């Protein structure tokens, strides 16, 4: 404010002390963050927050002075006035942007002391990564996705031990943030596929693998394993999703994300190894079963095909019925054959009698197969 005299800090060397501190803080993009600035409580507090040569926030005479505040911070900063007398000059910075990253300096002066705190702010984008698997008819497709990332992600595909080119990709932008979907057709199910995305700290990796087919009888039960690395169980943020693909339709069966959720009455997940238990199988349970187990930096998707067959007892019953029917048909055919033979013999005997009578041949005369007249 023009004409406003900004108070200066006066202190006697015998009673004035200087405190230096350095902090590191990580905030999420588009969220709020607190930049800490503790100081020894004193009288007549003067507070300045700066980033490089830009004024971020000023406070003295028990009120805010924001006339010289840089435009990038307008309506985005807040001091907790009620906490200042207790030695807290922390600054809340709202709606973080990537340009907010950098080194901030907090200066606090009182009649007794002066304090300077350096705060290194890192802004982290809350990105999301996923591996999806789809099957339509005989075509199988993988999709490796990165949502709301900065800078633009670089996705690479590996089949077995060989780097391969993606089939195609889709890219969109939301302001400075990128979203990318990379598609890869599955050429052979005998090789594993993986996609890799480098991150500011480390990398994100996803792996897909097709396992051997399983066969079970109708009415029985089966346990389908979910494969993962040995250290996955000890990581935070683990999630599990079980799905089934049948006739190109994908259904979610069960999930785990801290708690278990079941979306089908006949399934259960083993709480130790996340294997899937299916009971009272029917032929409609045939299909491909997908276990997707994920941590913040790793995803593994395992696919197994289940074929539900008719039970042995059913086949035995069907076989027995067929044999019975064959027997009945055979008996009926034999009876008809015997009856026909009896009718033919009877007719032949009557004919012979007429033949004998017509030619006046004695009845006890032997007849030959070929008669000579």
From TrEMBL:
Q: Which domain of life is it from?
A: Eukaryota
Q: Does the keyword Ligase apply?
A: no
Q: Name one Pfam family in it.
A: V-set
Any one biological process term the GO annotation gives: negative regulation of T cell proliferation
How does the protein associate with the membrane?
Answer: Single-pass type I membrane protein
Which range is the signal sequence, renumbered to this chain? 1-21
Ranges of residues in domain Ig-like: 1-122, 142-197, 200-302
Compartments it resides in: Cell membrane
A single Gene Ontology CC annotation of this entry is: external side of plasma membrane
SMART domains listed in its UniProt record: IG, IGv
Record key words, sorted:
Cell membrane, Disulfide bond, Glycoprotein, Immunoglobulin domain, Membrane, Receptor, Signal, Transmembrane, Transmembrane helix
**Major place of residence:** membrane
| Protein's name according to its UniProt entry | HERV-H LTR-associating 2
Q: Which organism is it from?
A: Anas platyrhynchos
